[in-house]
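WARN retry 2 of 3 for item q-0093 after timeout on previous attempt; input resubmitted unchanged.
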Amino acid sequence: MPKALEDVTVLDFSHLLQGPFATQLLGDMGARIIKVERPGQGDLFRTMTFKNRWVGGTESPNFLAWNRNKQSIAIDLKAPEAKEVLFKIAEKVDVVIQNFRPGVMERLGYGYEAFKKVNPRIIYCSGSGYGESGPYVTRPGQDMLLQGLTGLAAATGRRDGPPVPVGAGFADQIGAMNMVYGILSALYWRERSGKGQEIKVDLLSALLQHQNQEMVWVMNFGENLERPNSSIGHPGMDAPFGLYPVKDGWVSIAMSPYRKLVDVLGAPDLLVYDDPETLYVKRDEIWEKLAEETRKWTKADLLEALLAADIWCGEIKTHLDVMDDPQVRHMGLVTSYEHPRAGTVKVIGPAVKMSETPPEIARPAPIVGQHTEEILRDFGFSEEMIASLRERGIIEQGEA
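OK item q-0093 returned
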C-alpha cells in the first residue's frame, strides 16, 4: 500500500529521545529517514540501557525503541569534506531535524541558513530544552529536569512525600510530538507556497502547554493545587478519583457519582460525606474509608460490580501485565521486527491507524553506518568518491 510520507526525505542529526522519536513517527508513515551518526559510537543511546541489559546481548533497548524505519550514515561532521557530502544530500532532502544544544549545529556549519542556501525549500526543525536564548540556554535539557522545572514533579505524589517524576520520558515524547506537528504543518504550507521554513521546539514550552489545565487554574486563582495525602489521582480532584487497594492489587476509580460508588461497596455510612465541598476538603479521609471497603474485594469482583453500575474504573497493571492485556492483544499493539544482531525485538507498533496509507515497521533500528554507502550512491556519489571518503576515515560503513 502507498505510504502517506513516502516522498518525504529527512536528514536526521538528532540523538537520544526527543528527535529520534519524532523521526521514527515520520518513518512509520513512510518517510525516508537518514540518520546521521558519529563513526564508531553513533547515537549516545546506543550505549545506554536499564539494569545493564542488552537485547540479543549487544543492542540497547533504549536505542531500539526510537530508531526503527531508519537508515544510518556514519560520517565525521567535523571533517571539511563532510559538509560537501551532506549538503549534496540536502539538495534533495525535505526536512532536517536536530536536537543538539543551541548553537552547536551553527558552530559546526550545519545551521538553518547553511541548509537554506543549498535548498530554499528545506524545512529545518530544531529541538532544545529551553529555547534558543535566555538564562537557561546552557543548561542540559533532560526530561526529568524539565519535569521538575515545570511543576509536574511537584504536582505528582502525596502531600507528605517528595516530588515524583513520571515513570517515562514524558517531556521528550511531548517535544517529539510537537516536532512532528510542526513539520507536517510546514510540509502542508510548502505545498501551497513553495517555501521552506525553520521550526523551533523546546521541552519547556511543550511540557507547560500539556499542563495547561492545571496552569490556567493556578494562574487565575493565584494559588497552587495542593497534592492529596492519599492515592487521590490529581491535586485538583476530589474523592473518589484515585487508586484503591483490593485483595490482589489495585484498581483505579475515575469521575463517578459518589453515592453510586458507596452503594456498590455496600457502605451506606459513607454517605455522610456526599457533599461537593466535603468530597474535596476531606478527600484523604474519604479515601481511607473507601479503601477499607475496597480491600474486602478481589480485583475481578470489584471491577465487575463497578462496571455493571457504570462507574468509571480499571485495573492497575505493570508493564509486564500490559503485554497480556486482552485489549492490547486484540489491537495488535505488541509486535516485533527482526534485527541483524539482536534477533527478534518485541516493540509497540504504530499508534495511528489509517485506511489508505497505514504506517508500518519496514526496517529495524540500524547498525551505526549500516547504510552509509547505499545512501551516498542514491544521492549520486560515484564508487571512486565513496572509496576515497572511506579510506580517509570521513565515512564508515557499518556491518550488520
